[in-house]
Amino acid sequence: MNSGNHAPSKSGGFGRACVEFLVIVALIVGCAYLLRTYVITPYEVPSGSMETTIMSDDRIFSEKISYYSRSVQVGDIVTFDDPEVDGRTLVKRVVATGGQTVDLVDGVVYVDGEAAFEPYTNGQQSYPLSTAADVTVEYPYTVPEGYIWVMGDNRGNSADSRYFGAVPVSSVTGHVCFIYWPFQHFGPIS
């Protein structure tokens, strides 16, 4: 008696389950790649150059979406490609953008002739640094168009634009928006 119904073979069911599993894994990996490449990237901060806003060993999220609709602005905390070490990402605060003039006078940062309001430095003075090889920074310094001037909030412990000069906006990889670890630092960054 042949009713036309066949029982599924055990080997066919196992093979199908393996294919389904591999497709699901590929979708998850693909979504994670797209999320990390175009939306948000996690970083661990290895130094104290942004203390006390971001502490050494904090883990942060740097989002990319806001820069699809607006340009980098003064006050933004950004991640960007290290101008000296390939493959390394730095995190600093934007102090000036293209066309603005930065000056350091008696430990105070001036942007376009006005003292910058910088409560996040906790009163630390901002002095010029010896520059990296092949870099010249003379004050007052006018930031070239398409570049930004970045500084760490911990001015006494930050190799920043005072050291390596202005950085191209094209090297910015995201806007730091959130500390996710450790839990006592958990929350948005402003």
UniProtKB/TrEMBL annotation:
<dbReference type="GO" id="GO:0009003">
    <property type="term" value="F:signal peptidase activity"/>
</dbReference>
<feature type="active site">
    <location>
        <position position="92"/>
    </location>
</feature>
<feature type="domain" description="Peptidase S26">
    <location>
        <begin position="19"/>
        <end position="181"/>
    </location>
</feature>
<feature type="active site">
    <location>
        <position position="49"/>
    </location>
</feature>
<dbReference type="InterPro" id="IPR000223">
    <property type="entry name" value="Pept_S26A_signal_pept_1"/>
</dbReference>
<keyword id="KW-0472">Membrane</keyword>
<dbReference type="GO" id="GO:0005886">
    <property type="term" value="C:plasma membrane"/>
</dbReference>
<dbReference type="InterPro" id="IPR036286">
    <property type="entry name" value="LexA/Signal_pep-like_sf"/>
</dbReference>
<dbReference type="GO" id="GO:0004252">
    <property type="term" value="F:serine-type endopeptidase activity"/>
</dbReference>
<comment type="similarity">
    <text>Belongs to the peptidase S26 family.</text>
</comment>
<keyword id="KW-1133">Transmembrane helix</keyword>
<dbReference type="GO" id="GO:0006465">
    <property type="term" value="P:signal peptide processing"/>
</dbReference>
<keyword id="KW-0645">Protease</keyword>
<keyword id="KW-0812">Transmembrane</keyword>
<dbReference type="InterPro" id="IPR019757">
    <property type="entry name" value="Pept_S26A_signal_pept_1_Lys-AS"/>
</dbReference>
<feature type="transmembrane region" description="Helical">
    <location>
        <begin position="14"/>
        <end position="35"/>
    </location>
</feature>
<keyword id="KW-0378">Hydrolase</keyword>
<dbReference type="InterPro" id="IPR019533">
    <property type="entry name" value="Peptidase_S26"/>
</dbReference>
<protein>
    <recommendedName>
        <fullName>Signal peptidase I</fullName>
        <ecNumber>3.4.21.89</ecNumber>
    </recommendedName>
</protein>
<dbReference type="InterPro" id="IPR019758">
    <property type="entry name" value="Pept_S26A_signal_pept_1_CS"/>
</dbReference>
<dbReference type="Pfam" id="PF10502">
    <property type="entry name" value="Peptidase_S26"/>
</dbReference>
